[in-house]
Amino acid sequence: MQEDDSEGKNVTAAADLTRDRQKRERETWTKVLASLAETRDKRLFAELFGHFGPRIKAYIIRLGLPAASAEEVTQEAMLSVWRKAHMFNASKASASTWIYTLARNLCIDRMRKEKAVEYELPEDEVDPSPRHDGEHAILEQRMKTALGTLPEAQAQVLFLSYYEGKSHSEIAEQLGIPLGSVKSRLRLAFDKLKTHWEAQ
Amino acid sequence: MMKIRHHFDDATLIAYSSGSLPQGMAVLVGSHLHWCEECRERASQADRIGGELLEAIEPVAMEPDALASIMAMLDEPEPKLRSLSTERLDSARTGLPLPLASMLGKPLDQLEWRRIGYGVQQYDLKLEGPGATRLLRIAPGVSVPHHTHRGNELTLILRGSYSDELGRFCVGDVADVDTEVKHQPIVDTDEECICLIATDAPLKFTGLMGRLAQPFIGL
């Protein structure tokens, strides 16, 4: 009994450590971006590129663009990080949030353009969406942040929204649940995250 | 200064932030955010989810020459796009929120409105994707037929006001409704009401008048 308890504490302590480390890392990237804005130092940009480039590319591939287009959009996104760095406000957003919004906007523009071409082609009715089995467990290991604390059903609707760009109706259809349930899961997840962030 | 009383559902802001809204709904949400600080704040929290998920993603390696080629581009002059200040001018000139102003390119009164029923005119933005995005211009005292929704329907009031089962909606307010809601908006002052409506699926009209109106209105 005694032993179990201390083991539990150790696990919690380890989780706290990981969480602290990840929080520090996020803050570090935010500082790097803020000083890039001030100094225009290309070495700082290269560091940001090394960290965020492969992540943006992964995100864009998951949203459904082919790897070659994802590579191009990632380059565009990182170029706008360089050009817009002076607009970054570290008191309002972290580097990852700010870079996420740049990448998302460019990706949406690109998808709209590619869609316009796609409409003229015969459609292959293949569902390209990857399965999410086990994704939650992996994420829980990878990120000891607020997101890792969400119940699986709530995390899942966030993944489908952010990683696959699925609309509420598409999520409802894919999971076989009513539209209203999709929205209430999203609301619950959002509330939990906000509470978590406010406590930080 | 407008007093905004009706805001977006969190679920809608998450859809906006995750980039999963059809174009018309995204323009509508962006337009309300232009006016509404409270929703802007919540939208930036939704963006934070995106930021954390970006950090958590399994990275995919860039091409070997990616760093070299981007470093070579840093000193290139920026391509001149239509400048933000021009768009700001459009927005100020037309009194419309920036995302809508830059999409329409002219003031509401100069659009080619099409009459679609008694006291109702519409302007279809003709955007790609599921659902529809249109402006409705409704005369005082006129009501839109009773309808429910298959998907989500967002409405942003741009001029005048209306009332329905959910309350009174004035300039800047949004109505954010889905399948659960059945409503019949009626213009409640002697000023016409102009609103932007974006859906992600066709509306369902209910009742005899609704069924008769559907083919004409084509909402």
From TrEMBL, chain A:
CDD domains: Sigma70_r4. Residues 48-115 form the RNA polymerase sigma-70 region domain. GO terms for molecular function: DNA binding; sigma factor activity. Keywords: Sigma factor, Transcription, Transcription regulation. Residues 1-22 are annotated as: Disordered. One of its GO terms (biological process) is DNA-templated transcription initiation. The keyword Transcription applies. SUPFAM superfamilies: Sigma2 domain of RNA polymerase sigma factors, Sigma3 and sigma4 domains of RNA polymerase sigma factors. Residues 142-193 form the RNA polymerase sigma factor 70 region 4 type domain. InterPro entries: RNA_pol_sigma-70-like, RNA_pol_sigma-70_dom, RNA_pol_sigma70_r2, RNA_pol_sigma70_r4_t2, RNA_pol_sigma_r2, RNA_pol_sigma_r3/r4-like, WH-like_DNA-bd_sf. It comes from the Bacteria. PANTHER family: RNA POLYMERASE ECF-TYPE SIGMA FACTO, RNA POLYMERASE SIGMA FACTOR SIGZ. Belongs to the sigma-70 factor family. ECF subfamily. This is RNA polymerase sigma-70 factor, ECF subfamily. It comes from Marinobacterium lutimaris.
From TrEMBL, chain B:
Pfam families: Cupin_7. Signal peptide: none annotated. Residues 108-199 form the ChrR-like cupin domain. InterPro entries: Anti-sigma_ChrR (IPR012807), Anti_sigma_zinc_sf (IPR041916), ChrR-like_cupin_dom (IPR025979), RmlC-like_jellyroll (IPR014710), RmlC_Cupin_sf (IPR011051). This is Anti-ECFsigma factor, ChrR.
